[in-house]
Structure to design on (619 residues):
């Protein structure tokens, strides 16, 4: 009797919390397809007009965000995975110091990073004006997440012993990395990638400081539209943002579970002793 | 399958970067095809020595490792053609059993068909055929151990190095695998170095046993020599059980509070004699040189271990004997030891 009561309270609490989190999101998304927000969706009706308008006005910011996210991912993969590997394989006071320094941007507000970049390269003409400037900021900001995610997995698989095992079988350094280390750190790489892509697409503070009128990303455009457009357009923008990011995340997750579940892990069972 | 190489370790020491001297310079020769066991307590440098022979660690300046007379000291492990079995197995979780076993051949550039055929042959030999498509996380500890051994053997190494391969397994499985490994290695005639802290394992598997203590070699010899003729008190105490009686020797008799024992030794004001529990014989009280009280009897099936004590002096001895003898704790017995069974150190 008491157990069922407790259970009902738990369910109710869960529903309330979920509603608290989801309702604003749903209202905002609904506003994006409402003809007139102040009259409400029921009286004024549903439209895709605002979405179309957002696309017309801000398509370039959306594409730029995608471009920067992909470039950031490529850069963090190219730098972060080998860096994590080296830090893991050669533990020393120096490597620990490097790890800390790389993690530093996490603790520093994006605005401060942006300021530092502006002071360093603000006068570097073409570079300052190009999207590569924002890219550098994003890479600085997201790299620690990639390195940390990969290092965590490297530590959990005892990479050193695996590599010694491969070496004893005649594998050289590159073969050991490609055949043994890389396939076993895929979960860490995916987790890191997921973080990097979402952080890059959603990043506002740093990007807002670094952007020029020609290098606006999606969140910067969103702020712009909130400030200067009808509420419906800003909401439609949120809707577009959602439509972009959700399939991306789901896709990455599916890709991850596909790779992770390559073997029959569901039927994993200890074998009998012969 | 393949004939092993001979190994020469010459003046090999190891001081780690943090200043730990794990190995004082040691020299060891292993004949081609020999099975050598390295035995010693935890932290004595067994793994360090094995890793230097494997090429996973560099020896200090002046040390050299030779395979068949060829200096391989500076050669990395991947160029040494050594098979290695790690305590933690180091199997690749991203590959099936057969791909693990075939990996050494894959690295050598053998085509998939050929290397799988070869791997299957080794798996058959180790009675692992049914497991060939399993993933590593679907294997039991004993199965993993055998896959690790199969993987090392598949590339036909000249040397097989094993670092406590059975330590992670339970006792029954350990006994079974110990016998299996022994039979296998003897049939293959590979030079083998087997590191363990288990003396039974070392005795069974080693043609020769090297006992290590604190980074140095305490004794090298056949299991028999190590057991019956320990070179020093460390080896005597580390291998098996050992009794010790202290006292002065006069005219070929050792005197102690529990009585007198004939020994073959010169007179000395104070001496120690040692003997194994199975080299002494229980006799009726009053006979034999010593008289002690039975404290406890542990029945072990084929034999029983009798704990004796001399109440006044605290002298404690153990004697292994016929388990059919019905002994009652608290009674007094005599003890006789043949002088030839004493170990004088
Ligand atoms: N990388 C290292 N850096 C510093 N000291 C080390 C290192 N590896 C081992 N040692 C030290 O060297 C000594 C010998 O270690 P080793 O691993 O060879 O012992 P072992 O005989 O294999 O012991 P066990 O039976 O516990 O495995 C130990 O005191 C150990 O702490
Ligand atoms: Mg060890």
């Amino acid at each position: 009797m008491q157990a069922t009561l407790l259970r009902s309270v738990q369910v109710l609490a869960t529903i309330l919390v979920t509603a608290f989190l989801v309702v604003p999101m749903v209202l905002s998304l609904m506003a994006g397809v409402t003809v007139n927000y102040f009259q409400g969706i029921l009286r004024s009706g549903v439209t895709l007009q605002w979405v179309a308008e957002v696309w017309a006005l801000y398509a370039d910011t959306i594409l730029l965000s995608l471009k920067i996210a992909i470039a950031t991912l490529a850069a963090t993969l190219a730098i972060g995975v080998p860096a994590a590997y080296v830090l893991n394989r050669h533990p020393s006071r120096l490597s620990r110091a490097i790890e800390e320094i790389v993690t530093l941007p996490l603790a520093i507000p994006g605005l401060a990073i942006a300021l530092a970049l502006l002071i360093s390269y603000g006068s570097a003409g073409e570079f300052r004006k190009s999207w590569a400037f924002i890219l550098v900021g994003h890479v600085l900001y997201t790299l620690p997440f990639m390195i940390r995610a990969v290092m965590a997995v490297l530590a959990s698989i005892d990479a050193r012993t695996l590599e010694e095992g491969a070496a004893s079988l005649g594998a050289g350094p590159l073969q050991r990395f490609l055949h043994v280390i890389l396939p076993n750190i895929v979960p860490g790489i995916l987790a890191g990638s997921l973080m990097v892509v979402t952080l890059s697409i959603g990043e506002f503070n740093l990007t807002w400081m670094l952007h020029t009128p020609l290098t606006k990303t999606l969140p910067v455009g969103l702020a712009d539209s909130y400030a200067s457009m009808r509420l419906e357009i800003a909401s439609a923008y949120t809707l577009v943002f959602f439509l972009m990011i959700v399939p991306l995340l789901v896709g990455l997750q599916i890709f991850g579970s596909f790779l992770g579940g390559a073997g029959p892990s569901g039927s994993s069972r200890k074998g009998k002793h012969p | 399958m393949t004939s092993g190489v001979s190994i020469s370790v010459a003046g090999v020491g190891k001081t780690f970067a943090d200043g730990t001297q794990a190995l004082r310079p040691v020299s060891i020769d292993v004949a081609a095809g020999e099975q050598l066991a390295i035995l010693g307590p935890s932290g004595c440098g067994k793994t360090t020595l094995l890793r230097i022979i494997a090429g996973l660690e560099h020896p200090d300046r002046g040390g050299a490792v030779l395979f068949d007379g060829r200096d391989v000291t500076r050669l990395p492990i991947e160029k040494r053609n050594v098979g290695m079995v790690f305590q933690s197995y180091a199997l690749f979780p991203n590959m099936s059993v057969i791909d693990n076993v075939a990996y050494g051949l894959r690295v050598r550039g053998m085509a998939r068909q050929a290397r799988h055929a070869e791997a299957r042959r080794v798996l058959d030999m180790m009675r692992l055929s049914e497991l060939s498509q399993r993933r590593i996380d679907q294997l039991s500890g004993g199965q993993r151990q055998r896959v690790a051994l199969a993987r090392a053997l598949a590339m036909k190494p000249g040397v097989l190095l094993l670092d406590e391969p059975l330590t992670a397994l339970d006792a029954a499985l350990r006994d079974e695998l110990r016998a299996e490994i022994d039979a296998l290695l003897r049939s293959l005639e590979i030079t083998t170095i087997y590191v363990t802290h288990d003396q039974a394992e070392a005795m069974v598997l080693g043609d020769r046993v090297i006992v290590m203590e604190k980074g140095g070699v305490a004794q090298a010899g056949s299991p028999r020599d190590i057991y019956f003729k320990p070179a020093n008190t460390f080896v005597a105490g580390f291998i098996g059980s050992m009794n010790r009686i202290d006292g002065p020797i006069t005219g070929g008799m050792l005197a102690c509070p529990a009585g007198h024992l004939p020994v073959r030794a010169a007179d000395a004001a104070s001496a120690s004699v040692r003997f194994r529990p199975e080299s002494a014989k229980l006799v009726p009280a009053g006979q034999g040189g010593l008289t002690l009280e039975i404290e406890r009897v542990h029945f072990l099936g084929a034999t029983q271990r009798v704990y004796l004590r001399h109440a006044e002096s605290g002298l404690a001895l153990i004697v292994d004997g016929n388990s059919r003898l019905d002994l009652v704790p608290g009674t007094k017995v005599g003890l006789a030891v043949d002088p030839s069974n004493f170990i004088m150190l």
